[in-house]
Amino acid sequence: MGRIYNFSAGPAMLPVEVLKEAADEMLDYRGTGMSVMEMSHRSKAYEVIIKEAEKDLRELMNIPDNYKVLFLQGGASLQFAMIPMNLMKNKVSDHIITGQWAKKAYQEAKIYGTANVIASSEDKTFSYIPDCSDLPISENADYVYICENNTIYGTKFKKLPNTKGKLLVSDVSSCFLSEPVDVTKYGIIYGGVQKNIGPAGVVIVIIREDLITEDTLPGTPTMMKYKTHEKEGSMYNTPPAYGIYICGKVFKWIKNKGGLEAMKAHNEKKAAILYDFLDQSKMFRGTVVKEDRSLMNVPFVTGNEELDAKFIKESKAAGFENLKGHRTVGGMRASIYNAMPIEGVEALVAFMKKFEAENL
Ligand code: PMP
């Protein structure tokens, strides 16, 4: 079939079943005589697609009725601005800086108000999650912001921070639907979909309904008010229709696999294969403290840049794509999202063992 193991941090692998189904429906979506790409978003057929996508996501994540699901555009990065524009009533946000994406969100929030860094792991190249049990939360903070899984550094919050009663806003772009979550713990939980769910551009925002108000910062564009999209069921303007259709298929794929508990078990099994190998290897080592390791993004190094480069080159030739670490970190990174099969991780570890034997 020509498919390879793609370890990209995103856009990333999607389930083959989903891609095949989409391919089968490309020329004639269920008797409409057109593809979903060519279809009016106001059509009956599309209405079913978006409604079903929301229903399936609600079921998967057990989203309570007082939370709205918005399918928006602009990727996760547009949320860095939309969140302060909509939530900053006191113009204060508190931020935990655990990597580049958390930092970008913080820098954007600073445009709109006082953004405070209340914890950071920058001192050790973001290789751990700071202790968040007793943070100096600002008295008038509108929200506390985290990036729950740090795509570049491979860390994950295993326990949510104690926000001392303040709203928690979380970017889950790189751990979306990888394990069960308790939505009620968040004011907003959102993510770009291009890692675990679908094509880039779509961002899913799950937001407690009382946070959706007309009371946004002065000058907030209509398109950047949650209220605009909530009122119109994510159809204020043309939504990223084809992307949402693929997301809907992935939701069904996850449901068929047994939901988020099953995803978690599958992801833990995969990650353990790689981490167990790294922990005993004489050549490779993981770069993150054990207790904060991500199930999705696994950065590792040999400790020798030349050897890293050799590994990346040879792994590519052997059919393992996108193992190069982020340009700011170097080394390697294997992103093993939901759609990466166990066989992909097993094959990677077999390759690493061979490389170690040949180069040690
Ligand atoms: N947050 C996280 C955790 C990410 O990994 C990324 C992208 N890799 C982003 C935000 C930015 O997403 P986008 O490119 O969709 O704006």
Present the secondary structure layout.
Blueprint: E1 5-6, H1 16-24, H2 44-61, E2 67-72, H3 75-87, E3 92-97, H4 100-112, E4 114-120, E5 143-147, E6 149-150, E7 155-156, E8 168-171, E9 188-192, E10 203-208, H5 226-231, H6 241-257, H7 259-280, E11 285-286, E12 297-301, H8 305-317, E13 320-321, E14 332-335, H9 342-359
Parallel strand pairs: 1-13, 3-4, 3-5, 5-8, 8-9
Antiparallel strand pairs: 2-10, 6-7, 9-10, 11-12, 12-14
Helix pairs in contact: 1-6, 2-6, 3-4, 6-7, 7-9
This protein binds 4'-deoxy-4'-aminopyridoxal-5'-phosphate.
Residues 10, 75-77, 101, 147, 151, 171, 173-174, 192, 200 line the site of 4'-deoxy-4'-aminopyridoxal-5'-phosphate (PMP).
